[in-house]
Structure formats: C-alpha cells, structure tokens
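Case 370 in the screening queue. Each case pairs one protein sequence with one candidate compound; here the compound is acetyl coenzyme *A. For every case the pipeline is the same: read the inputs, emit a complex structure as tokens, and attach any notable structural observations.

Predict complex for case 370.
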Amino acid sequence: MTGEHAEVAAGLEGVVVAATRLSRVDGEAGELLIAGYPVDEIAGRVTFEQMTHLLLEDRVPNEQEASQLREQLAAVRELPEITKTVVDQAAADGVAPMDALRMAVGTLPVRDDAQQQAREIIAKIPTAIARHWRRQQGQEPVEVRTDLSHAASFLWMLTGEEPSSAKERGLETYLNTVIDHGFNASTFTARVITSTGSDLVSAIVGAIGALKGPLHGGAPGPALDMVFEIGQIERAEAFLREKLDRGERLMGFGHRVYKVRDPRAEVLSQAAHKLFEGDGDRAIFELAQGVEKKAVELLEEYKPGRRLQTNVEFYTALLLHGLDLPVALFTPVFALSRCVGWLAHSFEQHAEGRLIRPKAHYAGAVGRKL
Ligand code: ACO
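Case 370 output:
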C-alpha cells in the first residue's frame, strides 16, 4: 500500500481500529447493544446515573452505588467562576450554544484524578448549557440544586421549574438511548486525543467540536419542521411527493449503517408516545406517526431497494419537542448524554495505551526545486 498503488480508505469506512466493550451497532439486524444490553431492554428502565455507571464501570450499579454516583455528580454541578464568566460573555456576544459549550468545557481545570475529572465534566455540562441558554434569553441563571437527578436538574436549571416525573423519565430515556453508538466521529476524536496522552478535558472539547458538524450531531430540527409544515395528515402524501420529485431528502430517514429501522427510533417513539399521552400535544404525535408511515412507503417507491427507514433524528425531534426543549438545544443535549460515551471510550483508549497514528498516501508533487 505504498507509492502509486496505495488504496486510500476514505472516511475509514469498514476499517476496524479498536476493540470496545461499550456498544455494538449492527446495521443489518437493526440492533444496538450498549455494554451488552439491547438498547430497548435498558434505555427506558434505568436512570441516567445508572447508565453512566454501566458505561464507566461495566456494571449496572446497585441502589447504594447509584445514589452515591447521583450525589457525587450533584456535588460538582456548580460551575467555576471562570466558566461562568466565559458562558455569560458568550451569551452576551450571541455565541451559538454548541460553541459556548465547547468554550465552557475548555475552561474546566485539568485534574490528576481521572474519575473525578470525568464526574466534573458530566456534571457541569448541563449547568453550562442551561446557564448560557437562560442568559441568551435575558433571564438570570437558576440556582443549582443538589437534590434532583441529573436529568431533572437540567430541566430545572433551564426553566426554573421542577419537571413532572413524565418529563424527567422522557429525558432520561433519550439520554440513555444516545449515550454511545459505536465508533462515530466524535468518539473517534476523543480517542485520538486520549491516545496522545493528553487529558480528558481536551478529549471532550475535541469531541464537542466533531459533534457540532451537521453530518454528525445532525439536525433533528428539520425533521420536526417537516412535520409542522405538513400540519395535517391528509396533506402528507402530496407534500412528501413534491419534495421527492424535487430530488430533496426527507429529514429523519436513511442511515449510513442501519438498513432497517434504527432501533433507537423505536425506543424514542415509545418514549414520545408515553410523554404525549400524559401531558403533551397528542395530535402532533399522531401526525408524526402518520408522516413516518407515508414517508417510508414513498421512499421505497422512489428509491426501491435503498432500504431507507426512519432514523434516530425523527423521534428525537418529537421527544425533545415534547419536553419543551428549543430546537437550538437539541445538539447540546445530545452532547450532555454522549459525553459519558466519550469519557468511557477515553478510559478504554488510555488502557490500550497505543497512539492512533494512521498514514496518508502522498499525492503531491515530488522533486520540486526552488
Ligand atoms: N430522503 C430521500 N432520499 C434519500 C434519503 C432521504 N432521507 N436518504 C438517502 N436517500 C437516497 C439518496 O438520494 C440516494 O439516492 P440515489 O442513489 O438515487 O442518488 C440513495 O438514497 C443513497 O443515499 P446515500 O447518500 O448514499 O446514503 P448514505 O448512507 O450516505 O446517507 C444519510 C445517509 C446522510 C443519513 C442520508 O440518508 C440522509 O441524508 N438522510 C436525511 C438526513 C438525516 O435524516 N440525517 C440524520 C441522520 S441520523 C444520524 O446521523 C445520527
């Protein structure tokens, strides 16, 4: 693989670069295992703290361990002064939420104790997102509370209201579902940084930068916009046909890896169903289900054999909307969960201890002279 005949594995598709115990994505079967558990088995049934413990320690904690982790996270939820200053200035300058989050995490002190460092990063990310959002809305930050769960505390810091248990559960299910997903770009970024012997703060800052890209962190917003634009199920077919006739893509459908329905879409659709049954807008949920059915049908007609199915973004959008989260916070909330996967991967990478250093095929000029 040298010289003129080198084959370039562009995008590293199919290239195996590490072994991991954290998650396994099977795109043909439509299965996602998180630390050995099928996502639909675990995501709706454990707290985010339990899920965090599972990824970091490879074991669902017992009650005492789970409440210990909950307390440890709550105890370090407050932001350092330097982080508050940066977040407040970012809000005043109109910095977008993902950029503000990257700046905020970049201010966190680097610790010798990696476990403590991981807890600080996990605990402070929601506080930074909420503070920045409230400042941008011209509101005072809400005081940090230590008596709420990680998920409930985020909704509290955002709104100043204690969330219903249905909302807390809905958010936890989302966070648990997207906590890790194979060797995606941000995870790989975190592992590359860790492999150099750098610190966890740097790894997470880099991963946030990778997640921000529209090809990765995605834009569940457009999927939601499409459902709103359709408005009534009777209009769905004509609307979707028009889009497909124009050669446009239907947002929330298709996936590079999954060739059947993304298993996360199933978990999130059930969570959205529960949420909307309780205190949400049922009509929008039913409309979304109708749009999904019609879209999958039409995609098979327009792109036969492509196996374009509903992806995670479609029901993410619906669920997060049901939680009253603004579209601008969808990707930061994704980071709020995924940071646990990034940290767990960084620990794995550290244990492996091998610098990630691939090669490039040189395709430039040779023998130039001045
Ligand atoms: N709507 C209409 N047509 C589609 C869609 C879609 N959502 N997705 C793929 N296609 C078509 C393409 O136009 C192409 O058709 P062609 O061969 O006739 O030109 C064919 O299906 C294959 O498309 P690719 O781009 O090769 O598929 P790829 O696997 O690279 O794309 C992707 C995956 C980017 C997610 C794509 O399906 C897409 O753009 N979907 C819409 C955007 C979206 O929902 N993004 C969130 C993804 S979820 C996540 O990343 C976490």
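Case 370 observations:
- The pocket of acetyl coenzyme *A is lined by residues 218, 249-256, 299, 303, 306, 308, 311-313 (CB under 6 Å).
- Residues 220 and 313 are 5 Å apart (CA to CA).
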